[in-house]
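Example S7 (structure tokens).
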């Protein structure tokens, strides 16, 4: 029964790779959600602003 250690090690490596993949996916998803929220907040702030007079005069020419 000398192969039991190798099988246990193979399962351990599989679990570690699976956990690392899950952690990386979770971190990417968290980052994407944060970026989307910041983009949405910037867009909302941009929509609330009114154009200033220099831009308005430039567009009226």
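Recovered sequence:
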């Amino acid at each position: 029964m000398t192969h039991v250690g190798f099988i246990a090690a193979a399962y351990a490596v599989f679990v570690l790779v699976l956990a690392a993949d899950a952690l990386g996916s979770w971190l990417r998803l968290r980052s994407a959600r944060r970026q989307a929220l910041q983009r949405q907040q910037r867009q909302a702030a941009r929509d609330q602003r009114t154009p200033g007079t220099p831009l308005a005069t430039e567009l009226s020419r």
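Notes on this example. The chain has a mean pLDDT of 87.
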